[in-house]
Amino acid sequence: MSLRFAALGLLAQHPGSGYDLLRRFELSMANVWPATQSQLYGELNKLADGGLIEVTDIGPRGRKEYRVTEAGRAELVRWITAPEADPPMRRPDLLRVFLLGELPAETARTYAVDFAEHAASELARLQHLRDSFEWGADDADFYGRAALEFGLRDAAMEERWAQWLVSAIDERISISPSA
Amino acid sequence: MSLRFAALGLLAQHPGSGYDLLRRFELSMANVWPATQSQLYGELNKLADGGLIEVTDIGPRGRKEYRVTEAGRAELVRWITAPEADPPMRRPDLLRVFLLGELPAETARTYAVDFAEHAASELARLQHLRDSFEWGADDADFYGRAALEFGLRDAAMEERWAQWLVSAIDERISISPSA
DNA sequence: GAGTGCATGTAAGAGGTTACATGATTTA
DNA sequence: TAAATCATGTAACCTCTTACATGCACTC
């Protein structure tokens, strides 16, 4: 359901073709709501069928230039401000944490170390994204930057938590040694 | 794909029926990987078909007592230690952040305030969970507690981030006032 | 014997992924 | 003219959600 609004929102920020949207999407929203090319094109057709967006021009190679309609903008605002219950988080990596007891403590410890490293590299990736992008003064950049800030804080938190877990496992091993 | 391992993992920790699993699931893993009753029963049948679990007993009301097989335990360990690329995060609430520029600044600010409040109440819920549960000394409790710690840190981070966003929006409003 | 809880299952449909299919246009 | 890029679409399959269906066993 959310991809529908990602597409609608991108078009509200700026008109363009599915192909245009796809590239803008990859750089921004795909970080919080990944989607494939197939899916995006499908949503655009559905949105057009529903009258929320419209084709304003057909260019070379069958390129369709889309634009948001009034109805589409209203629907977008409704979705953003609606306090709909969002689907809860789905994290396979945390699911594994619940099951680390099925592994030898040393192996579980390795999992935690890897978790920390993964978070650190994600942090580095986002820092690079922040530093390499030319941030403008418009709303889209302001809020995009805010979403990125979330990612940075999240990655930093995850790294610290994983380091804490490594220590906790070490302590647990030393209390009841396996050898 | 992950629910399969959630079910397998729960059975690895302790044998039981689908109904038993469902209750244990709600208290633990459902926080990081929600699933419905239908789905869980379906997975149990698939796991049994694949020889990863087996029915050891049939009790009253057609109750099936399941147990992990050797193959199942091996598959579980493989999954936990496999560095498979996990699906990336999907957060409609952050998707909305990208689109807050489509709203008046005052309305966007309200969204951020609500975000902070939501995080605060989630934090309170998890703190209550932590304080009301009788934590044992076994592995399942140790790692369950670790996963809960993640949730606590995450909720705290989200609240602080949202508060930061409120301040940033306030600053932005004061710099370029709308009235 | 009525109500609650135990216990499992089916079916329809939406959302999402992967792979494939097709072809025009620009650039080297 | 070959390669890269632009540009859109279809089909099969899996996951997940929602709703419905069924019935036994225990307790009051």
Automatic annotation (TrEMBL), chains A, B:
Gene3D superfamilies: Winged helix-like DNA-binding domain superfamily/Winged helix DNA-binding domain
Residue ranges of every copy of the Transcription regulator PadR C-terminal domain listed in the record: 90-169
InterPro entries on file: Tscrpt_reg_PadR_C (IPR018309), Tscrpt_reg_PadR_N (IPR005149), WH-like_DNA-bd_sf (IPR036388), WH_DNA-bd_sf (IPR036390)
Occurrences of domain Transcription regulator PadR N-terminal (ranges): 8-76
Superkingdom, natural source: Bacteria
Protein name: Transcriptional regulator
